[in-house]
Amino acid sequence: MGGVLPVGSVFIQLYFIFNSIWAHQIYYMFWFLFIVFLILVITCAETTILLCYFHLCSEDYHWWWRAYLSSGSTALYFFLYSIYFYAERLQMEGAASLFIYFGYTFIMAIYFFLLTGFVGFMSCFFFINKIYSVVKTD
């Protein structure tokens, strides 16, 4: 569930990026793409920190993989959107175009998983280091 908010922040840009890649349209808003990328990074970091904090409050200290997967689950919604885009927006026919589209999209989803998972893990890692560095033990 941690991937819903980050993919919601980049949802509109996914449409333009998929159109530029698969529908032969020109993408010219790179400055806006950079801003949306920063929003994605901030949203991934904040949702992962929030979910990690909830688990720490319930005394569940197994946060390492959960932080990576909660933010990395954005790639699942990315891939689900690519299925919707293929079914509703593209007019491709044939098995070869189907395999090419989903092959490249799956590779993009894996890279997206690695990127968002890394952002979520590192933000949670720094957050936990910060909150435990202020704990005083006497």
Describe, in plain words, how this protein is organized in 3D:
By secondary structure, the chain is mainly alpha-helical. It is 79% helix and 0% strand. It is built from 6 helices and no strands. α3 packs antiparallel against α4, α3 crosses α6 and α4 (64-72) crosses α6.
- Alpha-carbon distance between the two ends: 39 Å
Order of helices and strands: HHHHHH
Rg, please?
18 Å
Mean pLDDT: 91
Our count of helices gives 6
Low-pLDDT ranges: none
How many extended strands? 0
Principal-axes geometry comes out as: elongated
Q: In terms of structural class, how would the helical and strand content be classed?
A: mainly alpha
Give the proportion of residues in helices.
over 70%
Strand-helix topology:
Blueprint (H helix, E strand, L loop, with lengths): L3 H6 L1 H12 L7 H28 L6 H9 L1 H15 L6 H39 L5
Helix pairs in contact: 3-4, 3-6, 4-6, 5-6
Tag the structure with descriptive keywords:
mainly alpha, 138 residues, single chain
